[in-house]
Structures are given as structure tokens and as C-alpha cells.
Amino acid sequence: MMTTLFNRIALFLTIVALCACQEEKQEVVSPNGDLRVTIECIPENAYGEAVFSVDYKGKQVLAQTRLGMETEVQKLAGNLKLKSVSEAKPIVDDYQMLTGKRSHCMNEASERVYTFENESGQALDVTFRAYNDGVVFKYGICTESGKERIIREHTAYALPQGAKRWMQKYDIGYEGFFPLSTDGILTGHPEVDTWGYPALAELQDSVFVLLTEANIRRGHCGSLLYNGENRDCYQVRLADDKMLCEDAWESPWRVLIIGSLGDVVESTLVTDVADPSKVADTEWIEPGLVSWIYWAHNHGSKDYRLLKEYIDLAVRMKWPYNLIDWEWDEMGNGGKLEDAVKYATACGVKSLVWYNSSTAWLGPGPLYRLNKKEDRRKEYQWLSDLGVSGMKIDFFNGDSVSTMNYFIDLLEDAADYQLMVNFHGATVPRGWQRTYPHLMSVEGVYGAEWYNNNAILTDRAAAHNATLPFTRNVIGPMDYTPGTFSDSQYPHITSYGHELALPVLFESALQHMPDRPSVYAQLPEAVKQLLSVLPTAWDDTKLLAGYPGVEVVMARRKGDVWYIAGINGTDKPRTLRASLEKLPVDGKSMALFKDGADNRSFSIEENVPAGDSLIVDCLPRGGFVGVIK
Questions:
Q1: How far is CA 616 from the centre of its chain?
Q2: pLDDT, tens only, 197-233
Q3: How far apart are CA 282 and CA 285, in angstroms?
Q4: Dihedrals φ, ψ of 590, to 5°?
Q5: Using an 8 Å Cβ cutoff, are 227 and 184 in contact?
Q6: What's the CA dihedral at 518, 440, 552, 629 to 10 degrees?
């Protein structure tokens, strides 16, 4: 009898625990009510899998994304129960940006902290925020010994079967394409199962999610996505096998931008969740166009007289900067680096100087001048004394903790010497452009530089260019080096109108203009004038039309001037159509630069009425720019 009674009591307690776990569904809702995140525990006995699902405008778009972390000491995944949930807390982001797609950024969210517990009483905090344009979450762990090593993250995003997705094969340089897939397999390469950020997917008709991460701090490594076990399930994998966590540790934010393509493209969620600026005095940080020697010659800056031609180009085009690229430590033919900087300064042009990070490819020098703090600060002081305004630092070694710490070291010391920074051969932005506003650009893109390396970009450029505004450039500045009107080692078959559109479509606070001085000299006067005054940081950005790989029409505002750019990503003639209802342009006129009779000419129209809509006929791989004042 006693055994039977105990069995009944045990069964009753198990049922109570199961019901409690099943009923403890707690929601966090965006301020506008469009996004609803449901966090729950799927039990096995009293403990189980912690998951979240997302509804958008009343329909579920993501189902049961797994949650969890694991250290060498604590397993906090698959064995959890929900212990407590905080009250909803309003979050308001209201800040200014010197660079990027919008100068005044505002966003609101609702936040709740969910505390889970495993069988041993060890706790995992998961902080969720629902913004109007997405969902973010981060993990918190209290270490038992003060120091533990994280060995695995269990986050796994489950996409609907057959969902369209545009994802880049993971590579530490992030220089790849974003091919369309519906099965999670890279065509011709079924062995590929790791993917880099950002990753775009169409969850339902015209409802998209962009997956990325933000606010990597010192001690964090980056992460990537893995779908080798289930092609529709993307697991977050850490770049390091083991990552030290001390005391009360927090992860970077996992970021899901959700909504229409316009919501995705216009979102500032990556910087919204980043730490505020750590630089008090920012008067010295100035975005601008840059003359650039490398692209046309496939060489750096070893020839002083040739470099002077690019400084003179910056003078004629009224561009504020010139980049002294690699090989400057071998400079000859009449001068050295100091002579080049002095000449540029006398011409009213500011100099940027290239460096090798000396962590990955130990090819061109100078080498090992930035790795140690004392050497780095000595070099920074020398550059500052010369009058150099910024640096392009190249060839980094992935997303490890050591590399992320090195990025931060470079940025923090550069601020002390008022040097702007452009990272090349590097990871993609994760919000540092807010925390360190002198971070002007990052490569992390298959850009025009690849016309020098092989023939692949020639045929793929148009579709690739029409994908980047929806993927890579959403998360931060992108040093693609757009606007190649002539040919380098391999030809381009995009039109002049297409190429002129790219410096507007592609956001980068330092926009490197890659072509030869002679080519810019031969452009129509109206085009030269446009390129002379083109902004590189914007007050507002609007997506007017488009679809990844097909077409894009975007409007960017600087002051009271709107710049509208569009490209055709296909190999057939295409008419681009866009509503201008989002723009206050009634009664104004537009200067329109579009495709001419062939892809190496322009058709330019002045004083085109800016009505409610814009319709432009484009050549195959064509494009246009409109300027409304």
C-alpha cells in the first residue's frame, strides 16, 4: 500500500511539473505589436528543451528555435526548466551616427529576461528584446569557479522547408557570393555546411529574416552557422573551440531582423544593440571619397610619381582623401611616404595609409608594426605627426577571440591619435561602427578588387550587386570600391549607369574610387560634378523597390538632397519602377543619369519632374542615378 501511495504521489508531481513547464509560455511583444516572441520549455520529464518561436502580424514565421549554452562545467541545453521571467521592460535607443545609413537612429523594444535552470540548479539567463524590426537575444552565465570555458552554443534556427535563402559560404575573409538556394545546399558543392553572417531567408511570401550577431566585446569570439545535420536547421557555432567566460558572462547579441525587405534594408538593429560610442571628441572623424591607386594597376604605392597622379585626381575631383596603399615601404621614383603625405597636404588632400595586420598573410609589408601595443602606439604617433588621417589595415585571421581583441586594440589606440580605421581582409561589421565611430569601413565583401584576380566577377557582378543591399550592406559599411568604368585585369559588362549607381547603393563612409585619372577626366561634366559632391554618409535611407539578385532601387538623403539609385541585376533589359511616395519631393525636379545607347555611355536628363513614381528603362545589367534637390 505504501509503495502504491508513493508511486501515485510521484506520478502526480511529475504531471504537475510537466503541466507547469508546458503552461509557462511567456511572450515578449514589439511596441507596434507586429512581432511576438514565445519562449517555452518542451519537457522530457521535469526538464527539457528551451525554445522560442516568432509570430509576425499574427502568423508564425519561425518555429521552436533551440536555446542553450554549454561550458566544460555546466550543460545548460536540453535539460532546462523555466525558473522565472522578469516583467516587461521598455527599451529606447536614440542616438546619433556619424556614418552609415541614418544619422539619427531611433528604435524601441520590449525586454524580458528568462531564467532557466538545469537539474543541478545551474542557471542560464536569456535576455530577449522584441523591436519593431526584429528580435534579439543574448545569454548570461554565472560561472561556478570564476573561470570556465564555453565549449558549445546550442542555438539552432529552424527555417521553413523550401524557404528561399541567400547565404555565403563561410570564409574568414567573407569574400563570397550569396547564391539563392531553397534546400540549404550550395549548388555543385554539397560538402559545404558552414555559412557566414549575414544570412537572409524569405520565411513566407514577402516576409524575411536576416540572421547576424552584434556587440562583440573583448573576450568574445565570432560565430557562424552550420547546417550539416539538417539542411533547414542552422546551428550557431563558435569560431573558437573553447572561449573563456569569467564571473558573470554575457554573449554577444544574436540578431534577427524580421519583416519586409524594406524593414530589413532600412534597419539599424545591429547598431541599436551595440555599446554606445567610447570616443568623446569626434570632430576629427570625417567621411569622404578617396582616390585609390591599386585597382587600375594591380599594384600598390611603390611608384611616387604615379601616386602623385592620384593625389592630383583627388584635387580635381574635390575628393578629400587619397589612399597610400601597400608597397609604400618600398616607394621610389622620386619620393618616399613622407614626401607623398607632404605633397598631398600641400594640395589640400588628406592621406590614408595601408598596413598589414601581420596575423594572416605575411606578404606585403610593412610587417609587425601594429601587433604589440608599444610598437603600435609608436607607429600611430609617427603617422599623427606626419599629418595622416587614417589607416587601412589588412589581412586578418578570422573570428577568434584573439583576432576580435586585436580589432578592438587597434581601434581603441587609433582613437587616441585621431586616426580613422578601415579594416580589410577582415570579418564583417557587428556594431563597432557605433561604439568606435572612427571605424569608417570594412571590406568583408566580394568587391570590385576581384576584377584583378580572376574572371568570375565579370558575369556575376550584376546579380551579386543586386543582392548585396539586402545582405552584406544591411549590417554595416562595405568597402566594395564601386564605380569601375574602365576595365582592369578582367572586364566588367555592367553598364556605366549601373556603375554610377553603386556608390549610392553601397554604403561606406570612406568610399574608394578605383578608376584611372584619365577615365574620370573623360566622363561627362555632369557625371564628374555628381562624383565630386557625392556624400558617403547619409541622414536617411529608404528602399523603394527590389528583390535580391534581380533589381534594387534605393533612396538616400543628405541634408535636403535625395539621391536615388537603381540597378538591373539581370542579363535582359528591364524597366525599374519605384514609388516616390515615401519621399517629400512634390514639386521638385530631378537630374537623371541613366543608360545610354550602349553600356559604355550615359543618357543625362536635367529637370525631370519628380512625381509620385519613377520609371526608368535599363539595359541588361544597367542602372541609373537620380538627384532631387
A1: 29
A2: 999 999 999 999 999 999 999 999 999 999 999 999 9
A3: 6
A4: -130, 140
A5: yes
A6: -70
